[in-house]
Amino acid sequence: MRKSLLVAALLLIAGSLGLAQVKIGINLELSGRFAAIGNQTLNGIKVANLQTPEVLGQKVELVICDNETTREGSIACAQRFVNEGVIGVLGAISSSMSIPAAEVLQDAGIIMISTSSTNPQTTQIGDFIFRMAYTDDFQGKLAAAYVVGDLGAKKVAVFRQIDDDYSYGLAGFFDQTAKKLGAKTLIQDFVANTVDFTAQLNNIRSFKPDAIYYSGFCAEGAPFMKQLREQGFAQQVVGADASDDPQCPEGAGAAFDGYIFTGFATPNLIADPAAKKRAEAFKQKYFEVIKNAKPGDFNGFVLAGADSYNVLVAAIKAAGTTDVKAVRDALGNMEHYPGVSGDITYKGTDGTPKDRTIGFYKYEVKSASDWKKIELFGKSTAEVQ
Amino acid sequence: MMRNTLLTLATVGLAILGLYLLTQAEGSSGLLSALTLIFIWGIAAVSLNLINGQLGILSLGHHGFMLIGGYVTALLMLPEKERAPFRTRLLSDWARNHLDLDKWLRGAGLDFIANSIDLKFVVALFLAGLAAAVVGVIVGAPSLRLKGDYLAIVTFGFGEIIRLLPNAPEVAALTNGPLGIKGIPGDAGTVWWTFFAFLFVLWFLTRLKFSSYGRAFEGIREDEIAAEAMGVNLAYHKVLAFTISAFFAGVAGGLYASYLQSVDTQTFNFFVTFFLLVAISLGGLGSITGAVLGTAIVVLVRIYGGFLEKPYPAYVGYLGGAVVMLSAFAFSAYIRKARRLRPVVETKHLIFGALGVALLLVTVLFRNEPWMTQTVQFFGLRKILLAVILILIMIYRREGIMGRAEFSWKLIFGPREDIPTEEQRKQDAWLSNPDLNPDAAKKEDDDASA
Amino acid sequence: MTASKLASRSTLFTLLAGLLLVVLIGWRIAMLGDYTFARIVQDFLNALTLGSLYALIALGYTMVYGIIRLINFAHGEIFMLGSYFAFYAMTLTPMHWGLALLITVLLGGTVLLVLRSLFNLEEPKRTAALALLIFAGTFFLLAFRNMGWIEALLLSMLATGVAGVLLEAVAYRPLRGAPRESMLITAIAASFFLQNMGQLLFGPRVQGFNAETILNRPLNFTIGEETVYYTGILIVVPTVTAVLLFVLNLFVSRTKLGKAMRATAQDAEVAQMMGVNVNQVIALTFFIGSILAAAAGVMYAIRFGQIHPLMGLIPGIKAFTAAVIGGIGSLPGAVLGGLLLGFIEIYVVSLFPTLSAYKDVFAFVLLILILLFRPSGLVGEDLTEKV
Questions:
Q1: Which of C211, C200, C195, C196 is nearest to C156 (CA)?
Q2: Residue C82: domain span
Q3: What is the CATH number of domain B28-307?
Q4: Which of A97, A226, B109, B178 has the fewest Cβ atoms nearer than 10 Å?
Q5: pTM of the model
C-alpha cells in the first residue's frame, strides 16, 4: 500500500515536472515577404533550444506563431501569447511587425525580444521590450560615413520604401548624416511590391548621383537593381541589412554584382575573439543540426535568433523564478552575457544592447545561381558618435 | 407582442450574465477575443447586408467605409504622447494639434465627456460613422444611374480609391501616410463595448427592416419599377440605405481600430469585403439573423482554423487532399441523387474522384519516402476554405442558411403551423367529411355518443 | 462618322478636352527642362510594352464579358498561373523521365480532351495525330530539353488555356442561369481561391524569374546626345502581341468557330437555335482568353524579373479598366484601351513625377468616370440598358 502510494507520488511529481514547462512565444514572419529571414531566425532559435532545452529544471516549450508579414498577424500573435501566458516572446523580424506587437505585450507585461528590429521606436515603447540588433540610427550613420567618407560621394540618391517603418526610418538617418557630412541627397519613394522603377530612375537621371543608397527589401530590390543597371546607371549602390537575403542575388542575378551592404555581423567580423570563437562553434553546430542547409542560409539573423533565445533563458536562470517581472529585471540588468552574436549588455539601455557589431558585406555575383557574399569588415556601434 | 419583448429582454439578460461569467473565468481570453471580433465583424456584416441583402444592390466597397471610420477614430482618440512627431512622422503639425477630440471637448466646456474615455469613444465613433456616411452618400449616388455588376465595379473602385488615398503624400499630412497610426487606446475594443454596440446596431437595423423604410428597400430589391410605381422614391431610399450602411461600417471600423490599437491601409483591404461577403452569403442575403450567424461561423473558422496551418508532415497534406477530393465527389453525387438529377455522376465530378483516388494511392505507396515525411505548412488554408465555402454556397444553396427569414420567437414558442388546429379541421371539407375521412366518421360517432 | 455625330456635344467636348491635354503636356514639357527627345522615345518603348501587356489581359476580360456578361475577377490569377507554369517549365526541366511521363499523361490527357471538345475534333485520324503530337512533344520537352523561354511560353499558354477552361467548367457553368451578381460573387471567390492556392503551392515569397536570355541584355542606341536604354523584351512584347492579335483576328473573322463566337456574343439564345453549341463556344472563349493572359504573364515575368502569387491583382484591375475604357465586349476596344492605359500610366508619371504615388488610383478613377459617364467606352455601342 505504502509502496504504491510512493510510486503514485513519484509519478505525480515526475508528471508535474514533465508538465511544468516554461513557455516562450515566437512571433516571426514565416510566410509572406520576409519569410526567408524569418525562417533563418527560427532555425537559429531552434538550434539554441537544442543546446539549452531546459531552464530551472523545466523544459522550454517554443510556441511558434506566424505573423504572415502583416501587422494584423503580428498583433494576433501577440494577443495569442498574452492569452497563453508565455514568459517572453521572441520576434518579430521587421520593425513594422514588431512595433504593434510591442504595444500589446508592453500593456500585458510580457517580455519581448525583437530579434532584428532596428527602428529605435520599438524599444521606446516600454521597459518590457528589448531587441537583439543595433538600431538604425547607428546603421544609417555608419552607412552615410562610408558612402560620403570612404566612397567620396558628394551626391547620393536615397531610395526608401515609404510604407515600411524600418526602411523609412533608416533612410531618414542616412539622409541626416549624409547632409551633415556635406553631401547632397535626393530621396525617392516607392511602396511595397513595386516592380516598375522607371519614374524614380527618371527623376534621378539629371541629379547624376555619385552613389545610391537603398534602404528597402529584396522583393523590391531585385527589380530595382535590374532596372537600375539596364537604364545605364553604373554607380555604386549601398544597401542595408534587409539586403542580407538570398532573394536579392537570386532575384536579379548579375545586377547585384558589387553591391555593398551593412548587416548583422557574421562570426568572422566580430571583433571580440572570444565571441568569434563562440559564433564559429555555433555555426558548426548549426550545420550539423539543420539538414540541407546551404552556406547562404547562415547569417547574422540566425545568430540574432539564437542569442534572443539564449538571453531570455539566461535571464530566467538569473532570476531564479518564472515570475515575469523578476525575469524582466534580470534581463534589464544583464551585463556582458557571452552571446554568439557578441557580448550583450542591457544594463543602462532602453532595451538595445550596447556595442553591437555591424558588418559590411559585398555581393559577388556571376549569375543568379552562382553568387557569394564577401565579408569586408565590421564596425562596432561604440565607435559611432 | 409582450411575450416577444419579454423573451428578447430575457435573452439579452442571459447573454449579459453569460458574458460576465465568461470574463471572470480562467483562460477564457481566447474566447473573449473571438467574441469581440464576432461583434465587430457582425456590425460590419449586418450593415453590408443592408445594401447587398435588403436593398439587393451588390456593393463591394465596404472596406473603404470601415477604413474611414477607423482612421477618423484613430485621429480623434490619439492620446497626447502618441502625437509626438517621432511617432506620427508624416502627420502635419496642424493635424497633430487640431484633430484632437480631447481639445475640442474641453474647449467646448464638455469636460465631463472629455474625462471619461468611454464617453469620448461614443462621440468619436459617432463622428467616425458620420464621416463614413458622408462618403456613403457619394458612393451611393452612382446607384441611381447604374445597375447590377457595373454598379458593383464602381463601388469596388471607390473602395480601392479610399484604400489607396491615405498613402498619397498630400493626404499623408492627415493620415500619417503608409506608416499608419499606432497607439490608439483599446478601451472600445473590449468585449463589453463591442457587445453593447452590437446590440444597439442589431436593434436599430431590425427596427429599420420592419419599418416602412425596410419594406421600401425590399420592394426596390424585388422590382424597382413596381416600387417606383407604388410611390417609393428610389433615389432617396437608395442613397439612404448607402448612408446608413456606411455609418455603421464606419463604427465597425472605429471599433476594429480600437481593438487592434493601430490602423493602416493594409488592415482594410478588399479581403475584408470578401470576408463579409462570405459571412452574409453563408448566413443568407437579406436576413439580419443570417448575417450574424454567418459572421460567427466565418470568424470562428478564421480564429480557430489555425490548426490547419500548423506544420505537418507532407503525407498529411496528400491524405487531406485525398479526403477532400473524395468527399467532394461523394457530396456532389449525393446532391444530384437528392435533387433527382441525371446522370448522378457527372464527368467533371469523376475527375475529383479520380484525383482523390490518385492522391490516396500516392500517400499509401510513398508513405515513407523522404519527400513525404518532411514538414510543410499550408499557409492560407483558411482563406482557401472561405473561398470554397462561398463558391459552394453560390452553386448549391444561393440563399444561404437562413434565406431571407429572420429569427422570431414564433418559431419556438408559437403554435405549430404544420398541424391543423381544431378550428381548421372543422372547416376543412375533406377532413370533416365522414365519407372521405374515416377518422371523421369515428369522431362523429364519438361526438354523437358523448 | 455621320454628320450628326460630329456635331454632337459629346464629340465637341472630347475635342476640347484633347486640345487642353495637348496644351497641358506642352507646357509641362517646357517646365521640365530636361525632357529630351530621347526620354520621349524611352517612355514610348516602355509604354508600348506595358500597353501591350494590358491589352493581352484586357482581351480575356472583354471576350468573356461579351459572351456571358461576366466580369471574370479571376482573370488576373490566370495571368499569374501563366507566369508560374512557364517558370516551372524553365526551371524543372529536364526532369526525371518518370515524372515527365506522369505529367505528360495527366496534362496531355486533359489537353487532348479539352481540345477535342473545343475544336470539334471528332475524326479518329485527326485525334490520333493530335494526341501523338501532344504526348510526344510534351514528353520530349519535359524529359530532355532545358526549356528556353519560347518553349516555356508555348507550353504555358497551352496549360493555362486548359486551366481557364477548367475554371469555367467548375465554377461558372453551374451558375449559368443565375443572376449576374451571383456570378460576380463566384468570380471574386474563385479569384481569392486561386490566389491563396497559388500561395500554398508556389510559396508566398516573391520568386525571381531569371530568363537569362538575350531578351534581358541591356541594349542602347543614341539619339543626339542622349542615350535610349532598353532591353530586347521591349521589342519582343509588342511584336508577340501583334502576332497574337493578328492570329486572333483571323480566327474570329474567318473560321466557323469564330463566327459561332461572334453569334453567341450577339445573342446566345438565337445562336443556340441556329445550331451553335453554346457550351463549346463559352469554353473556347475562356481558352483563348487564358492563352492570351498566359502570354502576357510570361512576358511580364521576363520584363520585371519576378513573380509572386498575388501578382495578378493590380495588373488584372488595370487590364479590366482598359477593357472598360475601350468598350467592354469589343475586341479592338480592349486593345485600344490597353495601349491607352499603358501610355497614360507611363507618360503621366514621366511628366508629373510627384504623381507617381497616385499611379494605381488613376486606374480606379478612370474606371469610375468611364462607367458613370460613358459606360460604352470609347469604341463600344451606346449601351442604354445600363443607364
A1: C211
A2: 37-93+146-216+229-373
A3: 1.10.3470
A4: B109
A5: 0.86
